[in-house]
Design brief:
20 helices, alpha/beta, Immunoglobulin-like, 27% helix, four-stranded antiparallel β-sheet, six-stranded mixed β-sheet, 3 domains, TIM Barrel
């Protein structure tokens, strides 16, 4: 290649080099919960819903399906000579940032607030996506956004996220390290913001000393889209585009999503970079394309065609994942509904018949979707299903022209006639998600607080005043506070954004066709008032690990239609730095088959430094038939027993620790809600 050709290959839309037989290639693609933005695909639950399954094995199978469909679509696009955006095999997924603040709109793309859960689900996703072929990557995953990134969206282009060395080591970096070392993820994407003063896409600390030197990463790195232009336009750390391009290339950003690397040749002419540096980065980029087999005549997946996309088998598994993702937050005995006794069921709310509420952001185009209303209509063919939107998703008026509350009387009239009510509320990607300026400037992607839009709060109030048996189905990508409505409703289902089959999954849960076992991957707070400022990246007072208040619903919480009893917790003593092994017996004491999520937490009881209140150290989703008992063994890796010093270094010390095993977090609120607490043992390290 000429130096110009090599430089051109470092932009996301790399042009063809016909004389060398190099085809054009566009690196930009997404696949967080299905192949995104390029036509037909199986649309799984949004990432936060996948995390709520607490099922790493199922997550890996989900990613295997995604990569199968991705390869099939890639083959078709290649045949048509389409090398455009979203048509490649380099997926900029998963998003493994920590969902530290419930106001962040992009938190729906993550696996929640816990570093361990995030790392296990992320590793499983990458392994499923990239495959296990000894020669080729089936697809290339990308860990993003490296590293300290979780809002506010409106400030991301200029913001400096300041995090202590302890918080970096304890919270913000572990999942990235796991994906690098365990999953061998092929790509890393830098964040828009600065971290501790350095722009993430040109950070010697992150891209150099941590990623390449300490972790031994040998894949490619890419900027977030147009993030390099922020260097001179918003961060004000460089004077112009050539200097921004040079800074990024010198500090380890191999590829640019954007157009700033079009200035590499001017930067070279100014003496800001060398030709060798351009070529070294080109080698990294081309190596990833080689690992995908893009220059070979045959890979194991060349025979996959469009008949492998959104198949009946994939849709069936998608329904299974949607069922697994649903979290039953409250149930006073109303659920499951007895379908044989329901003559009239009112299905009310802006998300009742909304396809958008199924999807979340970064999604593909479903072949068939089932809304909650449609799922209930299919499941109750003998009942009269009454419907009412009741209100707009966020506007005061439901019609145009209209007036504030113009749909309320319709909703109340429908509810009066019904035996029971299903209230479908929440948000969707039009107001919760990545940086946006739509909706009249009212919504930025983030939430101002934890409340639903006022029109929906009024709808819930008016319907619940009737005293009808009522289930609230909340469809959001983040924690919300339903306020008085949550207290008055008979049951609450947190559905997140449950994917194309989500409405059928919700109907199946309401009618008792399976026992729910989803668990919250985030803390639900009573309000955002006790939380630190959104811009404060210290972990003090955040997430179940450091929040000292009483949550509305705790991390790891979820109800079931059956009950599980734990006994016989045994943990074998270990020295500091050694693996800790244990086992616990779990019995399904109810009269229904069901899944249970076994959760093991660790607590240092007299540490010499600050530690989390509790630390999730193991989880597993198991299925038990009614009356069945099983012994579940677990291992806590040595690192789970480590402490983090002020400088971010890990160390071990002798002292007492407590190990908890059960179906929930070992906190007072979980015990209050569930009527039981996990088992615990104390031992000395």
């Amino acid at each position: 290649m000429t130096v110009q050709e090599a430089a051109d290959q470092l932009c996301f839309n790399a042009p063809a080099i016909p004389r060398l037989g190099v085809k054009a290639y566009n690196w930009w693609n997404e696949a967080q919960h299905g192949v995104a933005r390029c036509g037909l695909a199986t649309v799984f639950p949004q990432a936060i819903g996948l995390a709520a399954t607490f099922d790493a094995e199922a997550m890996q199978k989900t990613a295997e399906i995604i990569s199968t469909e991705g390869r099939a679509k890639f083959n078709a696009f290649q045949q048509e000579g389409d090398y455009g955006i979203y048509k490649g095999l380099t997926y900029w997924s998963p998003n493994i940032n920590i969902f530290r603040d419930p106001r962040w709109g992009r938190g729906q793309e993550t696996y929640g607030e816990d570093p361990y859960l995030t790392s296990r689900m992320g590793v499983a996703f990458v392994k499923g996506l990239q495959g296990d072929d000894p020669r080729y990557l089936k697809a290339a995953g990308c860990a993003k956004h490296f590293a300290v990134h979780s809002g506010p969206e409106a400030l991301r282009h200029e913001f400096d996220a300041v995090a202590s060395p302890r918080d970096m080591a304890e919270t913000y970096l572990p999942a990235f390290e796991a994906l690098c070392k365990e999953a061998k993820v092929e790509g890393f994407m830098g964040a828009y913001n600065r971290t501790n003063g350095e722009p993430c896409c040109a950070s010697p600390a992150l891209l150099g000393r941590t990623l390449r030197e300490a972790w031994g990463f040998d894949g490619y790195t890419v900027s977030d889209c147009w993030a390099l232009a922020d260097f001179h336009l918003h961060h004000a750390i460089t004077p112009a585009a050539p200097e921004s391009a040079a800074l990024a290339l010198r500090n380890g950003c191999n590829l640019n999503c954007g157009n700033t690397y079009r200035q590499l040749i001017p930067a070279l002419e100014k003496g800001l970079i060398t030709e060798d540096l351009i070529r070294e980065n080109c080698v990294r980029a081309m190596t990833t394309r080689m690992r995908l087999g893009l220059f070979d005549k045959c890979t194991p997946w060349d025979g996959l065609g469009y008949e492998s996309v959104d198949t009946e088998e994939h849709r069936a598994f998608n329904l299974e994942m949607a069922r697994k993702s649903l979290v039953l937050l409250k149930n006073d005995g109303l659920l499951p509904l007895d379908g044989s006794k329901i003559r009239r069921l009112a299905v009310i709310g802006p998300n009742a018949d909304s396809n958008a509420a199924l999807l979340g952001n970064y999604h593909g185009h479903y072949g068939a979707a089932v809304t909650v209303l449609e799922g209930l209509e299919r499941s109750l063919p003998g009942a009269d299903i009454l419907r009412s939107r009741g209100c707009h998703l966020w506007k005061d008026e439901g019609e145009s022209p209209g007036y504030a509350g113009d749909g309320l009387s319709d909703a109340v009239a429908v509810a009066r006639r019904a035996d029971a009510v299903v209230l479908c509320v929440g948000l969707d990607e039009s107001i919760e998600g990545e940086e946006m300026t739509g909706s009249g400037g009212k919504w930025t992607g983030d939430k101002a607080d934890l409340l639903l839009p006022e029109c929906q709060r009024l709808l819930m109030e008016r319907v619940l005043q009737l005293g009808k048996p009522t289930v609230i189905v909340n469809m959001t990508g983040s924690a919300v506070d339903l306020g008085p409505a949550g207290e008055r409703a008979n049951a609450i289902v947190q559905a997140f954004y449950p994917g194309a089959q989500g409405g059928q999954a919700v109907a199946d849960l309401l009618l008792g066709r399976f026992s729910p076992a989803g668990r919250l991957p985030v803390t639900f707070y009573h309000s955002s008032d006790p939380l630190p400022a959104f811009t404060d990246y210290s972990m003090e007072g955040r997430t179940y690990r450091y929040f000292a208040g009483k949550p509305l619903y705790p991390f790891g919480y979820g109800l079931s239609y059956t009950s599980f009893v734990y006994s016989g917790l045994r943990v074998h003593s270990a020295a500091p730095g050694e693996t800790l092994r244990g086992s616990v017996r779990v019995r399904n004491a109810g009269d229904r088959d069901g899944d249970e999520v076994v959760q093991v937490y660790l607590r240092h009881d007299r540490p010499s430094v600050r530690v989390p209140r509790f630390r999730l150290s193991h989880f597993a989703r198991i299925h038990l038939k009614a009356g069945e008992e099983r012994e579940h063994s677990f291992e806590l890796p040595a690192q789970a027993l480590s402490l983090v010093a002020d400088d971010g270094s890990l160390f071990y010390e002798h002292g007492p620790i407590s190990v908890f095993a059960g179906g929930s977090l070992p906190d007072e609120r979980s015990a209050e809600l569930l009527g039981r607490a996990p088992l615990s043992v104390e031992l000395m390290l």
